[in-house]
């Protein structure tokens, strides 16, 4: 089975972004992808943080969620829908929600980004809490034969999240970790690949990281470098910048081999 990370350079126009996502999902399906992931904010890279409120949807309904459902069904694959804004209960903010759809078009899981990004180096300033409400709990989903742990962008810096999704309530370790993201160029250049490969190695699983990658119409530049990484930390496929697909084979034999030869997951003491 094949895993695909779809890289976009999203715009402030939802319709244009959905058309771009449609092209990429169709291409991934044509290449034999079993599971494909869109990047964070695939549907909108707005002019400001609060633009998300303008296109926010109610949970379970809305054109963006309908698009993801129909794409998964028509292409016959598992689709991790990057993220989209779903209205929070307080009405003033939104959740940055990652929704997963099965080949039957049904939603199988929703994960709301737990950790909200803030960064200020004197030249760049970001604070997601202006418009976002954080999520509540880790989520992993059974996507066919694969147990997939869900995370979003800044979550990547918190290794305890990945331990929780694998081992809480007696669950088995994840086969795949998904990290849709919109890393800034500055932080991505420094830490993106380093952190992704670390998460793959310490959890001995595959990582699918679909990113925004390029210069956006709102002036922001994202790092890109969408990747598929194996349980030994080897980068199997990468798209550096611009629209494209990183696709690679998932091998249960390779994962099993790594976990048997170096049984670190079984050596956990805390």
Automatic annotation (TrEMBL):
Matches recorded under Gene3D superfamilies: Carbon-nitrogen hydrolase
Domain CN hydrolase: start-end pairs: 1-252
Keywords per UniProt: Hydrolase
GO MF, any single term: hydrolase activity
Official protein name in the record: Carbon-nitrogen hydrolase family protein
Pfam family, one: CN_hydrolase
CDD domains: nit
